[in-house]
């Protein structure tokens, strides 16, 4: 679809020179254009600039385009959510209540709850049912401004069920307008009926070759953490994934200083995610890498863990990406606006830093920095228009408030304007 958005109060995250990511002090710089226009043609960003520049254009080229007026509103590139687990069955609010009463996430997992609880439910659920519930979650997050995402397997834990999850992800990819990357997370937990050795052999010898044979995944993951997979086990799994064309993208250092960051970097992971436990050695390893440190403050918030040392990382010169970690156990929300608020409030990141972390840097974390994550000519026309708000810092400031008015995917309106509650009176 062809669309012109005019009179934009501020067009956020504009880009004229391609960037892979932004790091260190540059994270606090956010390019924007005030009083702007944006043109989307055949689903791609065709042009943008000031309204003055717009008036100088020859409008014969834009005959027949739909028009929108964004007076008082900001336009952002859609968020890229680079870490989710939205294919799952059932929910885990009983564990939520158990944690309120004092149990820890690790205690619940060790007693057969947690990931194993979700795996049991997923094994008992058909592919069709899984698809329907994941599709609902996908629509939910698009309405909150997400325009590209990564989805993991990891609640199957058998060859049959891991493939079932990945086929659901493929179907989501095929049937939706947003770009989706699939991550094979067989190494999420050890199932009860297998020893560690048996299960890791299964991942390496059967699951990875089968996933690759059907072309079902872009990435290979491992939950490299205390009580889950060791760096040595992770290294074996990642190397086998690489052999089968899957780039590593892993869970690391959520529960302890696990060695996950180093094993990820050593295997050229595209990102290492969570990072509650990060010290000098991890920062040093990341500084000399092409690996995007990805923070998931929603999981730290929900589990009551201490927050990631974002300031220390940025001051050391690192880039940071942020993602929702939408999953039933540690982050049952896929809201990128709330992720931004948490990162500002708890990680002490600036609004400019969180916007960079949720757009261009998270696009890099799923290999989409050339097509998503900024307003640049030729990139995919996935944008959202805000309600009338004072400026971009209002979004993370007004936590929990729905500040989005419309979501546009490839130039098509996905979410129509919804009045704010105030407008109803
Ligand atoms: N940390 C590992 N995996 C998920 C949680 C999975 C679960 O508890 O179901 C996460 O990213 O937080
Ligand atoms: Zn995760």
Properties at a glance:
425 residues, alpha/beta, Urease, subunit C, domain 1, TIM Barrel, 8-stranded mixed beta sheet, 16 helices, 22% strand, disordered C terminus, binds N-(iminomethyl)-L-glutamic acid, binds zinc ion, Metal_Hydrolase, zinc
How large is the share of residues in beta strands?
15-25%
Number of strands: 16
Largest sheet properties? 8 strands, mixed
Rounded to an integer in angstroms, the radius of gyration calculated over CA atoms is 21 Å
CATH superfamily of the largest domain: Metal-dependent hydrolases
What ligands are attached or bound here? N-(iminomethyl)-L-glutamic acid, zinc ion
CATH topology of the largest domain: TIM Barrel
User: How does the overall form come out from the CA principal axes?
Assistant: globular
Q: Fraction of residues in helices?
A: 25-40%
Query: In the CATH hierarchy, what is the class of the largest domain?
Result: Alpha Beta
Q: What structural class do helix, strand and pairing data support?
A: alpha/beta
What is the subunit arrangement here? single chain
Keywords: Cytoplasm, Histidine metabolism, Hydrolase, Iron, Metal-binding, Zinc
Cofactor: Zn(2+); Fe(3+)
Binding site for 4-imidazolone-5-propanoate: 92, 155, 188, 254, 330
Function: Catalyzes the hydrolytic cleavage of the carbon-nitrogen bond in imidazolone-5-propanoate to yield N-formimidoyl-L-glutamate. It is the third step in the universal histidine degradation pathway.
